[in-house]
Amino acid sequence: MPPAIDAAPPRRVPCDNSPMSDPHRLAPSTLAAHAGGGIDPITGAIVPAFQPSTTYARNPDYALIGPADYTRDGNPTYPPAERLLAQLEGGAEAMLYASGMAAATAVFRALCRRGDHVVAPLAQYWGLRNWLRRFGAEHGIEVELVECAAPAGTDALVKAIRPGKTRLVWLETPANPTWDVVDIAAAAHAAHAAGAILAVDSTAATPVFSRPIELGADLVMHSATKYLNGHSDVLAGALVTAKLDDAWAALHVQRRSEGAVLGAFEAWLLLRGMRTLYARVERQAATAADLAARLEQRRDVRVLYPGLASHPGHAVAARQMHGGFGAMMSVRLNAGRAAALAVCARLGVFARATSLGGVESLVEHRHSVEGADTPTPDDLLRLSIGLEHPDDLWRDLAGALDAVGR
Ligand SMILES: *Cc1c(COP(=O)(O)O)cnc(C)c1O
Questions:
Q1: Could you report the per-residue pLDDT of 219-253, keeping only the tens digit for each?
Q2: Structure pTM?
Q3: Confidence band (pLDDT; 50, 70, 90) for 127?
Q4: Ligand 1 centroid – CA 211 distance (Å)
Q5: By mean pLDDT, which of 35-39, 173-177, 218-222, 278-282 is the weakest?
Q6: Ligand 1 pocket: which of 96, 131, 221, 223 to mutate (most atoms <8 Å of CB)?
Q7: Average pLDDT of the chain?
Q8: Ligand 1 pocket: which of 225, 234, 270 to mutate (most atoms within 8 A of CB)
Q9: Known catalytic residues?
Q10: Within a domain: residue 22?
Q11: Are 211 and 106 within one domain?
Q12: Considering 274, 293, 314, which residue would you say is the last residue of a domain?
């Protein structure tokens, strides 16, 4: 009989004398490039291992051989990706989910009870806004949707938070699809004074440009489908917590029991995507800033991009974002809906498709997708800027706008 292995397999370790042994000394981009650091102590592998097994054996004493038991409770492929994301966000721990929606809805389902009051922005990812309305109605939770775009909306946001009554404040910044900026520090202050938890959907900002936990957020949520993975080939979500508190413990229990876990291969792909996060997103945001500046010179569009001084949220964005303003923008066509759709039809480098954050640029007429009752204007085109050469993207945009304007 082979000897029973009863020790947990050692985790990836830094080489002797490696600066990777002290992650606090290293920039997040270095940690990302090294997939969180360390090498596999058994094989010397540079790349973290992928483990597809759903179930994990026990020794004759019926003790688990390794740290894993059953993959709904945890898979050895998760911790490297979860640890890296927690480090990038400056959080205590992260958890991966089957999608961004699975991560977002987990927060409300695990933490809100009948009679609770929830504050959330009116301008936010439409899928979550629609779900929240239904969820609130079905569970007797009062969901208050507030116009909270900074600077004008900060007061309304703070006033909506009720001491002793508000359980959760949810923010998204910059917010889909107008890229409203919400003041995270002001919201954190008001939420904590009222005894509420602050959660921030930071999908568009990415940890490259914004670290909501440093501004007081308790939870950060990502649709990892977008920039974190970055290649439009993985559906995934993530939560990061500032501290290991009761709320986080409840989220652990909920993910284990309800099972909205990420597939192991998706977790492995996500970690691979995160290794290039900084290079991708910095370049994408630089291209976005360049295109936004060029578009702003035109008379036929209005550009919504928080990096432009003309954006109402620019000052707050400049305070709470560092190194860039993201790579999402929208343009509103002065000539209206038909012109917006005609421009969309003429674009060739931009693909007409939903989603964002991939290496390829995408254009979307959100109003067509969201339906008649959406607050999204029908003259708006949402642009997700990819890694193409900026001149190719500019020629595509300017050519389509010129052709439609003639
Ligand atoms: C895409 C998206 C979501 C939903 O994430 P999925 O991975 O599609 O479930 C939530 N918030 C924002 C800002 C998004 O862009």
A1: 999 999 999 999 999 999 999 999 999 999 999 99
A2: 0.95
A3: very high
A4: 18
A5: 35-39
A6: 223
A7: 94
A8: 225
A9: 72, 125, 201, 226
A10: no
A11: yes
A12: 274
Task: Assess if residue 66 is contained within a domain.
Answer: no
124 CB within 6 A, ligand 1 = no
Ligand 1 pocket test target in 96, 99, 101, 131 with most atoms within 8 Å of CB: 101
Q: What is the 3-state secondary structure (H, E, C) of the chain?
A: CCCCCCCCCCCCECCCCCHHHCHHHCCHHHHHHCCCCCECCCCCCCCCCCCCCCECCECCCCCECCCCCECCCCCCCHHHHHHHHHHHHCCCEEEEECCHHHHHHHHHHHHCCCCCEEEEECCCCHHHHHHHHHHHHHHCCEEEEECCCCCCCHHHHHHHCCCCCEEEEEEECCECCCCECCCHHHHHHHHHHCCCEEEEECCCCHHHHCCHHHHCCCEEEEECCCCCCCCCCCCCEEEEECCCCHHHHHHHHHHHHHCCCCCHHHHHHHHHHHHCHHHHHHHHHHHHHHHHHHHHCCCCEEEECCCCCCCCCHHHHHHHCCCCCCCEEEEEECCCHHHHHHHHHHCCCCEECCCCCCCCCEEECHHHHHCCCCCCCCCEEEEECCCCCHHHHHHHHHHHHHHHHC
- Do residues 126 and 137 share a domain? yes
Q: Is 125 in the pocket of ligand 1 (CB under 6 A)?
A: yes
What's 303's domain CATH number? Answer: 3.90.1150.10
336: containing domain:
277-405
Ligand 1 contact, 225 CB (< 6 A):
yes
The residue whose CA is least distant from atom 1 of ligand 1 is: 223
Last residue of a domain, one of 250, 274, 298: 274
Residue 240 Cα to ligand 1 middle (Å): 15
**Residue 236 alpha carbon, nearest atom of ligand 1:** 7
The response to whether residue 101 sits with its C-beta less than 6 Å from ligand 1 reads yes
